[in-house]
Structure formats: C-alpha cells, structure tokens
C-alpha cells in the first residue's frame, strides 16, 4: 500500500492563519455559543473529503476532470470548465490573501515593516518553494511548528482552569442570528475549504495509482477521519483559549493582542510564540492553496498537471500574485482574513453540489459511486450551507 499522507496534508492546509484567527475571534466574541458551527464543519469536511478521495482513487483523475465527465454535451463541458476556473480561482485568491495576511501579522510582530510588505516577501518565498519543488520538505517542517503551537494551546487550556460547566452551558445555547452569521460562515469556510476537495482528489489519484481500489479507499478514509478530527480538535481548543482570555472581558481582541490567550503558560513570551505559529500556519497554507488551484484549473482546461509544466506554474503564480495584491491593499488584517473565510463559505455549495453529481455517475465510478447514506449526508451539508448563505444575503438588506 502506498505511503499516502494526503489526509494530513488536507488537515494542515485548513489549519492555517485563517483557522487560528477565525476560531480566536469566534471564541473572543461569542464564547462557545458557536461551537455547534465548528462541530458541523468538521463532520461535513469528513463527508466531502471522503467523496473527493474516493473519486481520485476510483478514477485515477482529479475532481476537475470528473466535473467535465458529468455530461457529453460540449457546451456543458465548457460551462463546467469555466465554473471550475472561476470558482476555484476566486476562492483560492481570497484564501491566499488570508494566508499571506495571517503569516504577515506573525512576522510583523518581530519586525514591523507593515503586513503589506511582509505579504510581498512571503508571496515570493512561497513562489520560490513551489518553483524549485522543495516545498514538501519545508512544508513538513512548518507542519511540525503548527503542531507545536497546537500543543501549547492544549496545555494553556488546562493550565487556565476553565469553568467547564459554563463552557458546556454556552455550547448548549447555540446562536444563529444576523450578528453571528458572518462568523458562522467564516468557521465553515475555514474548515470545509473548497480547494481541498480538488487537492485531495488529485493527491489520492497520484498516490494510490495501481493499488487495490477497495483497500486504498478504506485506508484513505481512516487516515482522513483521524487527521481531520485532530485538526478540528485543535480549532476547538484555540476557540476555548480565546474565550477564556477575552469573552466577557473589557479587553477587545485585535491583531496586536491575539497571543494574550497563551499568557497563562507562556507569560510575556506568548505574543512572540503566537506570532511564530501564525507565520508557520500561514506559509504552509500559502503553498497548498495555489498548488490546489493549479490541479483544479489545469484539470479543467486539459492542461498538464505535472508540477514542472509551464501551465501548472502559471496558475499558481497567478494565485500567489493576486493574493499578494489583495493582502497588500490596506485592508484591516483580521477583517481581510475573516472575509476570506466567509467567501469560502459562500463558494462551498457550488463545488459541493457538483461533487455530489459526479459521485453519482455509475458509468465512471462503478460500485465506488455514492451510496444512499453518503448522498443524504452530502445533501444535508450542501442544503444547510446554501441556507446560511441565503440568510447572510437576506440580512444585508
């Protein structure tokens, strides 16, 4: 069996600065009243990523190629290709800006030259790592740093001696109102990341080529459930530490004091450690987002998905460049990150609906196509996110 780590790569991809920042803001402003949104996001991620991985293993192709096989009609094929390019391109550009902004916030705590300038430098680093193909080694180091940060969050939570009954009381009093809807969409968008569906399908298609498909799907499913579940637990603990530090307190959380939530363990070093972790999370995600966009766009346009092909490189370069421009445009850092996550939450239904359609193509998938339980869960996930998006739009008027 192939040594596949795609489940852990997916988990590392969504535990970026957007996740850390969004979970921190959610905990600081809403306590545990939005824990339900996070739990829903984790369960939904497991369902959708399992479909994407199964598609890659069963067909040997990525999600973009699968979308084009929905219909034999040439006009519809062109439409689906355009949709993939537009949806993933826009989504990843927004997500990339959030990744670069989050990492820039971390670096700016060490050397204040402005988050816009740091975003440009980070964009250049990400491009250099992708260009020379050594990003996997760097990514492994950065993932270790993110895990180290997560461990500190765990230790901090228990060292702070939280009121567990109060946390449970808030969790059992969920909020879903106009004030909380943007944050709910952001929590969903930072966890169920549309581009991860494309990335997971492409990675499993490559890593399990020539393997027994049934065994590969089972192995991939177990790994993904564990990795995504662990990522969700990290997000939950970040939310909890922010709640303890800021919820119901006079101090308001902003880019300059987010690290305060780690002070019970790290004291004056908290802000520096938080900044280093935010940088590691940001650089990791700023590599995976353009990589996923290249797989999706090249697959949709019948271009080579070889990492060294000109078309593949052109796509990820465009995503990084757009992310740098948006990150350097002068938006407030936390607002930019939150917007990126909310945008992903709104784009998610588009990708998820077509994933469901593809996964019901018996001609392509054979007996690996969706069974009734998978379809029901998928429809529930898509329906709920669509309703949230419509509620968000209605609340603007």
TrEMBL record:
<dbReference type="GO" id="GO:0005384">
    <property type="term" value="F:manganese ion transmembrane transporter activity"/>
</dbReference>
<feature type="transmembrane region" description="Helical">
    <location>
        <begin position="140"/>
        <end position="160"/>
    </location>
</feature>
<feature type="transmembrane region" description="Helical">
    <location>
        <begin position="7"/>
        <end position="28"/>
    </location>
</feature>
<feature type="transmembrane region" description="Helical">
    <location>
        <begin position="115"/>
        <end position="133"/>
    </location>
</feature>
<feature type="transmembrane region" description="Helical">
    <location>
        <begin position="372"/>
        <end position="391"/>
    </location>
</feature>
<feature type="transmembrane region" description="Helical">
    <location>
        <begin position="180"/>
        <end position="203"/>
    </location>
</feature>
<keyword id="KW-0769">Symport</keyword>
<keyword id="KW-0813">Transport</keyword>
<dbReference type="GO" id="GO:0034755">
    <property type="term" value="P:iron ion transmembrane transport"/>
</dbReference>
<protein>
    <submittedName>
        <fullName>Divalent metal cation transporter</fullName>
    </submittedName>
</protein>
<dbReference type="InterPro" id="IPR001046">
    <property type="entry name" value="NRAMP_fam"/>
</dbReference>
<feature type="transmembrane region" description="Helical">
    <location>
        <begin position="34"/>
        <end position="57"/>
    </location>
</feature>
<keyword id="KW-0472">Membrane</keyword>
<feature type="transmembrane region" description="Helical">
    <location>
        <begin position="224"/>
        <end position="248"/>
    </location>
</feature>
<feature type="transmembrane region" description="Helical">
    <location>
        <begin position="272"/>
        <end position="302"/>
    </location>
</feature>
<keyword id="KW-1133">Transmembrane helix</keyword>
<feature type="transmembrane region" description="Helical">
    <location>
        <begin position="78"/>
        <end position="95"/>
    </location>
</feature>
<dbReference type="GO" id="GO:0015086">
    <property type="term" value="F:cadmium ion transmembrane transporter activity"/>
</dbReference>
<dbReference type="Pfam" id="PF01566">
    <property type="entry name" value="Nramp"/>
</dbReference>
<feature type="transmembrane region" description="Helical">
    <location>
        <begin position="337"/>
        <end position="360"/>
    </location>
</feature>
<dbReference type="GO" id="GO:0015293">
    <property type="term" value="F:symporter activity"/>
</dbReference>
<dbReference type="GO" id="GO:0005886">
    <property type="term" value="C:plasma membrane"/>
</dbReference>
<feature type="transmembrane region" description="Helical">
    <location>
        <begin position="314"/>
        <end position="331"/>
    </location>
</feature>
<keyword id="KW-0812">Transmembrane</keyword>
């Amino acid at each position: 069996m192939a040594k596949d780590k795609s489940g852990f790569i997916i988990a590392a991809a969504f535990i970026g600065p957007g996740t850390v920042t969004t979970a921190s803001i959610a905990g600081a402003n809403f306590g545990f009243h939005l824990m339900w949104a996070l739990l829903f996001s984790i369960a939904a991620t497991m369902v959708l990523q399992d479909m994407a991985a199964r598609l890659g293993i069963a067909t040997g192709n990525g999600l973009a190629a699968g979308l084009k096989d929905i219909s034999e009609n040439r006009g519809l094929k062109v439409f689906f290709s355009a949709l993939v390019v537009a949806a993933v391109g826009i989504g990843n550009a927004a997500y990339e800006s959030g990744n670069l902004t989050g990492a820039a916030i971390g670096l700016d705590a060490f050397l204040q030259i402005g988050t816009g300038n740091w975003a440009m430098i980070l964009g250049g680093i990400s491009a250099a790592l992708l260009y020379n193909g050594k990003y996997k080694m760097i990514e492994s180091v950065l993932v270790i740093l993110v895990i180290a940060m997560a461990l500190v969050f765990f230790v901090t939570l228990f060292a702070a001696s939280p009121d567990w009954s109060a946390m449970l009381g808030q969790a059992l009093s969920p909020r879903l109102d106009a004030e909380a809807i943007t944050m709910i969409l952001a929590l969903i968008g930072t966890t169920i990341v549309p581009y991860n569906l494309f990335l997971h399908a492409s990675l499993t298609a490559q890593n399990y080529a020539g393997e027994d498909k049934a065994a590969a799907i089972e192995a991939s499913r177990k790994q993904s459930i564990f990795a995504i579940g662990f990522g969700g637990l990290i997000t939950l603990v970040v939310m909890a530490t922010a709640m303890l530090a800021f919820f119901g307190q006079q101090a308001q959380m902003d880019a300059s004091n987010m690290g305060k939530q780690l002070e019970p363990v790290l004291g004056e070093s908290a802000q520096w450690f938080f900044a280093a972790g935010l940088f590691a999370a940001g650089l990791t995600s700023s590599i995976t987002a353009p990589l996923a966009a290249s797989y999706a766009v090249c697959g949709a346009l019948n271009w080579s998905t070889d990492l060294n092909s000109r078309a593949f490189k052109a796509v990820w370069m465009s995503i990084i460049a757009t992310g740098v421009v948006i990150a350097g445009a002068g938006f407030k850092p936390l607002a930019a990150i939150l917007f990126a996550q909310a945008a992903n939450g709104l784009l998610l239904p588009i990708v998820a609906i077509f994933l469901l359609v593809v996964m019901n193509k018996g001609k392509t998938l054979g007996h690996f196509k969706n069974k009734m339980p998978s379809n029901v869960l998928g429809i529930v996930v898509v329906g709920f996110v669509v309703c949230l998006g419509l509620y968000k739009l209605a609340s603007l008027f």
